[in-house]
Amino acid sequence: MAILRRADTTPNQIQLDDEGSYISVTKDVTKGQFNSLVESMPQDMDEDKGLTPSQGTSLQTALFKTFVIGWSLDVEPSVEEYLALPREAADAIDTALMTHFSNIQVGESDRKKSKR
After folding, report:
1. What's the predicted TM-score (pTM) here?
2. Three-state SS string across 64-113, please?
């Protein structure tokens, strides 16, 4: 894949359970979205301890706002609806989004390098 291309904003469905719950996310992150995520990350993070609970919650909300473009609920996805979910549903979304974001950060060229 050529390095100079437009970000792929095609919806990608991520299953959350065996009951049909899913979120739809964009396949890529644009430079603007990445910049917004970086701005939402804490500047005073302790390298040894990682994120505090409130910093982690802020990051999870930013990931939701950045990536989720659809879901299996019968309402439009919004931060307000996400924050109104029961804890186990929100945790499933958070886990899926962290995995998705991590996979985006390890690009195809990085995957090839690690095999060498």
Report:
1. 0.79
2. HHHHEEEECCCCCCCHHHHHCCCHHHHHHHHHHHHHHHHHHHCCHHHHHH
